[in-house]
From TrEMBL:
Record-linked InterPro entries: Calcineurin-like_PHP_lpxH (IPR024654), Metallo-depent_PP-like (IPR029052), MPP_YfcE (IPR041802), Phosphodiesterase_MJ0936/Vps29 (IPR000979)
Keyword Isomerase part of the UniProt annotation: no
The organism of origin for this protein: Halalkalibacter hemicellulosilyticusJCM 9152
UniProt cross-references to NCBIfam families, sorted A to Z: yfcE
EC numbers for this chain: 3.1.4.-
Keyword terms: Metal-binding
Keyword Translocase: no
Cofactor: a divalent metal cation
Domain of life: Bacteria
SUPFAM superfamilies: Metallo-dependent phosphatases
Protein name, entry field: Phosphoesterase
Molecular functions per Gene Ontology: hydrolase activity; metal ion binding
Length: 169
């Protein structure tokens, strides 16, 4: 099972479309963790499940998505409602409450993944305005044979950012 996860594209359309087209045939689901600043039906988001971020004014996106894909239960939110710039504790409470295996979020613009209490957390960073490392990134989550892997990719060419890759068993 593979999931493409991106966030914080802040109005970019061509770049979002390029990323989705680059990976569309190899993933089972696509999540956008908010702050797309696009309309619900915008063609750049075709095929993506999208949540509402703090910069998505007037957008008719949900605040969260709960979705099971091939036995993996995803919880997706932007993160601003859980104060993720200060702590991930409220997010972790919600992820555990809904029984998530994977929790995806954005808002901080910092690419990271980690495991806490059996839940894998993924922030794909920002494809437009990254913080921390200056690389514009998105993520791919892959699960097979009782092993999960998160790879981060450069927005412009899809190259893997090796130092951010993580494997969880």
């Amino acid at each position: 099972m593979k999931a493409l996860i991106l966030s914080d594209s802040h109005g970019w359309t061509n770049e979002v479309k390029e990323i989705l087209d680059r990976h569309r045939t190899e993933v089972d689901i696509i999540f956008h963790c908010g702050d797309s600043e696009l309309e619900l039906e915008h063609s750049a988001l075709a095929g993506a499940r999208v949540v509402k971020g703090n910069c998505d004014f007037g957008a008719d996106f949900p605040d969260e998505i709960q979705e099971e894909v091939e036995g993996i239960f995803f919880y997706v939110t932007h993160g601003h409602l859980y104060n993720v710039k200060m702590t991930t504790d409220p997010l972790s409470y919600r992820a555990e409450e809904v029984g998530a295996n994977v929790a995806c979020f954005g808002h901080t613009h910092i690419a990271t993944s980690f495991e806490h209490n059996g839940v894998i957390y993924i922030n794909p960073g920002s494809i437009k305005l990254p913080l921390g490392r200056r690389t514009r990134t998105y993520a791919i989550f892959e699960s097979a044979n009782d092993e999960s892997k998160v790879t981060f990719h450069q927005q412009d060419d899809g190259e893997i950012v090796e130092e951010l890759t993580a494997v969880y068993k």
